[in-house]
């Protein structure tokens, strides 16, 4: 073997090792990027939900309270009643469980939405033959729904028991001591399927939020109306993003709110120890209403309480959801900017 052969072999081995190191570096960078994106989503969920926790609890109490035994009659009165009867802790009851649920839910939801957008956009460009094609509102709705299905499916049992912990009061005959105790109790007494009651009505809301937020952001950047965006701007400011998030929350909660009411009521099915949930008779003497499914829950709610019952708790939810969604979207993008993550929602 000549010296040239040795040099050539050494050079070739060095080139191969460089390729291997480069591939490993890319893989490591991708993993770090994904972890940072998940972390940003989790922080966004925790911050946004904690900020509006009292309104979140009041909304759920209004959604499921017995119409024959009204305790919470409006946003201000309801918050005052909780403060008077349960104190500061009552306003934030269930928030720890909610954060334990919302952190992984939000992380998976934001990340799943970005990945779904990437996959759908790739298929759309391949089908149309246009490499410059962008996602339409309908495709974004599909990506949002996909993200909602993945996120809800992975964390729904925690949402289910969070609803029950939020509803229980000091006077409830039976007390869930925490999320793990509630999960084990529901599983033991009502079976595995009970942990997923109300899952189906949860999906549209998430899809609508993402679709409206992303479509509105793109429209503002492209058309730059009313002087809201500078002509040379390539990204929206924090205030404008808050406005887009608020609009997304308003549209999503208005359209999908009846589904949220039905979801909460379905979660209470089989729970005979609640102090105040919807019943079929006056003064709560009869057993709680039982629902065989989503359609049956809609029918019985309208039959027993009228169409307006589908919008119980809408006012505190409106007050809550606009800042909550806005804070979540902006916190997510701000945390990603701080961490230096290149992957963006709008990408």
The number of distinct β-strands equals 0
Uncertain ranges? none
Distance between the termini: 53 Å
Largest sheet: none
* Overall shape: globular
Q: What is the element string, with H for helices and E for strands?
A: HHHHHHHHHH
- Domain count: 1
Secondary structural class: mainly alpha
Tally of helical segments: 10
- From the alpha-carbon coordinates, what is the Rg to the nearest angstrom? 24 Å
The residue fraction in helices comes out at over 70%
The third-level CATH topology is Mitochondrial carrier fold
- Percent in strands: under 5%
What CATH architecture label applies? Alpha/alpha barrel
Mean pLDDT: 77
CATH superfamily: Mitochondrial carrier domain
CATH class descriptor name: Mainly Alpha
Keywords: Membrane, Mitochondrion, Mitochondrion inner membrane, Repeat, Transmembrane, Transmembrane helix, Transport
Membrane topology: Multi-pass membrane protein
Pfam families: Mito_carr (PF00153)
Solcar repeats: 32-119, 135-223, 236-338
Helix and strand layout, with pairings?
Elements: H1 3-51, H2 53-64, H3 75-91, H4 95-128, H5 137-167, H6 179-190, H7 203-223, H8 238-268, H9 294-305, H10 314-339
